[in-house]
Specification:
The protein is α/β, with parallel strands linked by helices. Helix content is about 30%, strand content about 25%. Strand 8 and strand 9 form a beta hairpin. It starts with 15 loop residues before the first helix and ends in a 7-residue tail after the last strand. It binds zinc ion (ZN). Zinc ion binds near residues 265, 267, 327, 329 and 331.
């Protein structure tokens, strides 16, 4: 039956029985789904059949969720190689092409774009749980939701249909110039918007430059962000919240699986996973062993229902941590505390691992800085030298030495790394309108 009227706004959960079930029930559900999904992959995908056979594993051997660890990993390179070998979608696909109704594709910034196919059932499942995630973040049928993500093959595009499904007025704005986006948000009285964290900030600053006070002149009270580690950093969210007078909710998705696979509830402490769709592992990138709660590891994902192209143990390259504590919202789905960065972004300086997000948290906390930052890594006399460039908020340069000393002290206490700190005037660093590039690693001679 199609939904012809919106659900009551005072309903706390989208699907209470599912969302508040015990951890034991979650595990039992996931095991059932995993067994069926692996059997589907083995029966219908030539790649998985060959790969499981080569590893000496069979879906029928799966008796517990931990048994997933006997199965081989896949990664972006395998997706790309198989897609080239068996065009157009590769032989990880496990349905006839006539059943595929939608594809998303990665941006291709790191190579050939990989296409992610969906059946009509996969697509409907995805939109339903998007609605569930939005509901958990407090979006309601009374909201006017402005979706300003790219629609061109980008998996973030159709997420707007989740807002529409829960009954919110959904404004399909797409990626338009900021002045136009501000005009759309103003004209339709948008109460919620989705962008990247750096763009949310840029948009707020642009509004102020145009004489619009985001807090008073616009009605946006919820901002959904994804695509950068910034959304996981409380200091960054708080800065955006102060600029807009709005609540910021971090979401996580990836082009090769789904849009938002995990999102923040109204407690805003960690992102709940859609565990009926995704089996989550957080592993030490070197040993492949699970990391302890609170520790950082690589996120490895296995789909549980997506029939068009099952993803079994996909190494995302994202470094995350998770918490096992119960959430005050009453939802029992696992939470990750956030994404710290890409494995590729991790800098090793004098043998210490550091992510740009570690520096960001410090830059955003100091209200005498604008919060913009850049890391420059060089090698002098065989030693790694980290220089952090930040901007002072005031025009006056008289406090620069004290600001630099304070910043260096915070950085040293948080990361253990000593850095040179350069204080720049406001607006000296380039503003990002999409994904921010914040590291220049000059050690290899290549500006990364
Ligand atoms: Zn929660």
């Amino acid at each position: 039956m199609p939904i012809t009227h919106s659900p009551a706004s005072d309903r706390k959960y989208w699907d209470e029985a599912l969302e508040t079930q015990s951890r034991a029930d979650w595990d039992a559900l996931k095991l059932r789904l995993l067994q069926a999904h692996l059997a589907h992959a083995y029966a219908h995908s030539p790649y998985y059949r060959a790969s499981f056979d080569a590893a000496g594993v069979h879906p029928e051997q799966v008796r517990s969720l931990a048994d997933i660890r006997r199965f081989p990993f896949i990664d972006k390179k395998i997706l790309r190689d198989r897609q080239i070998a068996v065009p157009p979608f590769g032989d990880l696909v496990a349905v006839p092409e006539r059943d595929i109704v939608y594809i998303s594709a990665s941006s291709g910034s790191t190579g050939v774009p990989t296409a992610s196919p969906f059946t009509a059932g996969d697509f409907a499942d995805w939109i339903d749980y998007e609605a569930r995630q939005f509901w958990s973040s407090g979006l309601r049928p009374e909201d006017r939701y402005c979706h300003s993500l790219n629609f061109s093959l980008f998996v973030g595009g159709p997420c707007v249909l989740g807002a529409q499904k829960l009954g919110a007025l959904s404004i399909h704005a797409g990626t338009v110039p900021s002045e136009r986006l501000l005009a759309i948000a103003g004209q339709f009285g948008a109460t919620a918007i989705w962008t990247t964290p750096s763009y949310a900030w840029y948009l707020g600053e642009t509004a102020i430059k145009e004489g619009i006070d985001p807090k008073k002149d616009l009605s946006i009270r919820r901002i959904f962000v994804a695509g950068e580690p910034g959304g996981s950093i409380p200091e960054t969210r708080q800065r955006i919240e102060a600029l807009w007078g709005a609540s910021v909710y971090d979401y996580y998705g990836l082009s090769d699986i789904f849009g938002a696979c995990a999102g923040m509830c109204e407690e805003k402490h960690g992102l709940h996973w859609a565990e009926d769709h995704i089996l989550v592992e957080v592993l030490d990138p070197e040993s492949g062993e699970p990391v302890a709660e609170g520790e950082r590891g690589e996120l490895v994902l296995t789909t549980l229902k997506k029939s068009a192209r099952p993803m079994i143990r996909f190494r995302t390259g994202d470094i995350v941590s998770f918490t096992g504590e119960p959430c005050a919202c009453g939802r029992t789905a696992q939470r990750m505390l956030g994404t710290h960065g890409r494995l590729d972004d991790m800098l090793i300086i004098k043998g210490v691992n550091i992510f740009p997000s570690d520096v960001e948290a410090i830059a955003r906390k100091d209200r005498e800085l604008t919060g913009e930052y850049r890391l420059v890594v060089e090698r002098e006399n065989h030693l790694d030298i980290l220089t952090v460039e930040v901007e002072r908020a005031a025009a006056d340069a008289s406090q620069d030495a004290a600001l630099a000393e304070r910043f260096a002290g915070h950085l040293k206490s948080v990361t253990g790394i000593s850095a040179r700190v350069t204080i720049l005037p406001p607006d000296a660093l380039p503003r990002a309108t999409h994904k921010a590039k914040r590291v220049e690693d000059r050690r290899s001679g290549v500006w990364g």
